[in-house]
Amino acid sequence: MAGMKKTPLRKCVITNEMKPKKELIRIVRTPEGEVLIDHTSKKSGRGAYISANKAVIAEAKKKNALSRHLKVDVPGELYDQLLQEVKE
């Protein structure tokens, strides 16, 4: 029992579901103001997690949700990059 690790949970900003961190994609606004996909989840800046699901990414693009959460304009190309990375 002493060796059990807790799985870190994060909330998807679109669906508001709590999921294991590995099932989500982190988008980060760096201190310089650029918006990137953070594969390591260690880049500094304001982050937002989104489910790795094409329908969720499409909804985020339609509602411009990442722009609201990161408080900066998110380019449409970022959503296209996200869609390419997701397999579903």
UniProtKB/TrEMBL annotation:
Q: What SUPFAM superfamilies would the database entry show? A: YlxR-like
Upper classification of the source organism reads: Bacteria, Bacillati, Bacillota, Bacilli, Bacillales
What is the organism field in this record?
A: Evansella caseinilytica
Protein name per the record = YlxR domain-containing protein
Family annotation (Pfam families): YlxR (PF04296)
Q: Where is the YlxR domain?
A: 10-83
Top-rank taxon of the source lineage equals Bacteria
Name the InterPro entries on file. Answer: YlxR, YlxR-like_sf, YlxR_dom
